Amino acid sequence: MDHPRRSEDRPGADDQVSQTERAQQAVRRFRSELTLGEDSIDTDTWAGSIPQVYGVAPRVRVGRSRWFNLLWLVPIAAVGLVVAIPAAQGLRNVPAVADFIERYPGADPAWSAGAGTGFPAWLSWQHFFNLFLMVFIVRAGLQILADHPRLYWTRHSTPGHEWFRMQKPVPEDPLWTAKEDSIRLPSGVGLPGVRHTIGLARWWHLGTDVVFLLNGVVFYVLLFVTGQWHRVVPTSWDVLPNAASTMIQYLSLDWPPEKGWVVYNGLQLIAYFVTVFVAAPLALVSGLGMSPALSTRFRRISKVLSIQFARSLHFLVMVWFLVFIAMHVTMVFTTGLLNNLNHMFAGRNDDSWVGFWVFAVAMVVVGIAWWAASPFTLRHPRVVQRVGSTLIGPFERWFAHVDAQPGEYDESDISPYFWHNGRYPDSAEYRTLADSGFVDYRLEISGRVEHPVELSLEDLRALPPHEQITQHFCIQGWSGVAKWGGVSMTTILDLVEPHPDAEWVVFYSFGEGADGGIYYDAHPIEEMRGELAMLAFDMNGEPLPFGYGAPLRLRNEVQLGFKQVKWIKGIELVAGIDEVGGGYGGYNEDHEFFGYRQAI
Ligand SMILES: Nc1nc2c(c(=O)[nH]1)N[C@H]1C(S)=C(S)[C@@H](COP(=O)(O)O)O[C@H]1N2
Ligand SMILES: [Mo]
């Protein structure tokens, strides 16, 4: 094996000693260039004082480059109703339609005979938990979307090719970053609302997801054990004509009689069935479709269900939920409020005010939690980070153990546009090196290793080459495929020989993070032995360009983009992440409350 700069290959022992010392000193210096993060969020200075700018009204692309502003849907829906109501009323005067409605009045009590009448208490509690959790899931989900406010159908994330955006078109600037592209949301809508708080929004979203899923599993089990499933699973084709009939009756503003205590009408049945048995599972599957680790592992699925397809689907599922909630609440309020609220909040079938008051208390609880969630998150982000990582951490850890393998993509899959991200290096040290084509560049590797080394680009190019065509998953949501050329991390580790207590590999950058102090990130050493863990000095067959991390960057494909440190100047092997920087495992972990394992 070719081992440049190892003692055996070196001309003199003195030189070797000085090389070891230089590497050790350099890495000590890198450590001192780190800054600790804050433990609370000041909106003015957050994320490098990123201005709190909003995006534009959501719009959908029509054809090649025309954009339809979705706010138009409001007047369109209003006009639609104005037209549909008299139309439905007219229809009901047509004898054939009247006969049809008589034949299919909306519901058949036989459908849910197996469930018995009324609602058990567990169902009321489930209903409450679901609506409570949904508030945070949707708000945090919108916050995540706001960090890359564009949706695409293919993994390429090419500007202009998105089908949905709530941001202006991407500017011409060739170094425009995804962070600059993020938008703020009103703090009552987004969670926590502030621009580029995706790390915290993810804890909320994924953390409440875990609870929501557990609740969902209990719900499914109880539904089938108690026979309540008869209420929400259509078992007869009659449901369809009855749904059509209900629709006509609703639109004509002459409601069918409410029989919810006994049986749901066809329209309700279909809406509930789709929500419980289609939308909820689809939310999970499309959510997991965005995981870098799972996408890399289940290539056959992810070739079709790419991260961007999954993201778009995930968004559409949310739209379904929002439309469902809006319709559901409207119907509850307009088809006999007190009786309806008694059903779900008091388990009784009368017109007393009991259900209303229980509902009112429930809404106060939801309202307080809604109102408090953003301010709490900004004041106690470390708590959110810790609780979130307790809930979702085990899954992140588990998914990172996938057997990532090369060969997923070929040259034809390379993305025509690859987003930039992060803060570009601008130190004199970096500029001097870059100006001379990095001839004086030395990668310093030290820490808990047998052989600290310094490697020039020439040394790196002399090592066994490694190449991979892989997909990048930015935490913000964009993705892209590129070909990376360089050296496998296994080669590097074999060269320096880690001590047995070396658990983490820390990468230091020439570039600063958003709040000052150099950018860094730590990876578990076992992931660095993975087939797709490498140091790249080439991208798509050319020397790595400035914006993408010249002269050297990391690739570890089971993790998200922020862990792929660019402009690397040094590597340190350490026993624990708590001894480096703020102790959370990387710059974004310290400063922006990200998680140190992000395989989802
Ligand atoms: N030094 C440094 N490396 C960094 C960042 C940064 O800000 N500084 N940003 C990270 C993030 S968030 C992403 S998504 C990727 C983006 O890599 P690209 O610009 O090559 O697409 O780099 C990562 N590496
Ligand atoms: Mo990123």
Write the layout of secondary structure elements.
Layout: H1 13-32, H2 46-49, E1 59-62, E2 66-69, H3 73-92, H4 95-103, H5 121-147, E3 150-151, E4 164-165, H6 178-181, H7 198-226, H8 229-232, H9 239-251, H10 266-288, H11 292-297, H12 299-304, H13 307-334, H14 337-346, H15 354-379, H16 381-399, H17 428-435, E5 443-447, E6 453-455, H18 457-462, E7 466-473, E8 479-488, H19 489-496, E9 504-512, E10 518-524, H20 525-528, E11 533-539, E12 542-543, E13 553-556, E14 568-574, H21 587-592
Parallel strand pairs: 5-14
Antiparallel strand pairs: 1-2, 1-4, 3-4, 5-6, 7-8, 8-11, 9-10, 9-14, 11-12, 11-13
With helices defined by DSSP (H or I, 4 residues minimum), what is the helix count? 21
Mean pLDDT: 95
**Unique bound compounds:** ligand MTE, molybdenum atom
Largest sheet: 5 strands, mixed
User: Any idea what the radius of gyration is?
Assistant: 29 Å
> What is the distance, rounded to the nearest whole angstrom, between the alpha carbons of the first and last residues?
37 Å
Report the strand count.
Answer: 14
Strand content: 5-15%
Neighbour order of strands in the largest sheet: 6-5-14-9-10
Oligomeric nature of the chains: single chain
Helix content: 40-55%
* Shape type: elongated
The residue ranges in which pLDDT falls below 50 over 5 or more consecutive positions are 1-11
What report would you give on this structure?
The protein is of the alpha+beta class and 600 residues long. It has two domains: 7-32 and 403-591, Oxidoreductase, molybdopterin-binding domain (Sulfite Oxidase, Chain A, domain 2, Alpha-Beta Complex), CATH 3.90.420.10; 59-168 and 180-400, no CATH class. It is 47% helix and 12% strand. A five-stranded mixed sheet has the order 6-5-14-9-10. A hairpin with a 5-residue loop joins strand 5 and strand 6. The two termini are 37 Å apart. Residues 1-11 have low confidence and may be disordered. It binds ligand MTE and molybdenum atom (MO). Ligand MTE is lined by residues 418-423, 474, 509, 511, 519, 548-549, 561-562, 564-567.
